[in-house]
Design goal:
single chain, mainly beta, 5-stranded mixed sheet, 0% helix, elongated
Amino acid sequence: MQQHVHAELIGGPQDGRSFILPAPGAQPPVGEFTFGTDGAASRVHYERYDRRADGVWRYQFAGEQAA
């Protein structure tokens, strides 16, 4: 049973960033998330988009929010 999956961000200020997400059981990883960086004036929002043939989940940029 796989407990972690690889993810990649598409578009927006974090384009190309990749990381590992928890994915308990056979369920897909979280569908969306919002995060900011230290000193950032806004937070970025990404939504699950699709899964590449090599198993990496891709998240599409969905906008920014004031911090």
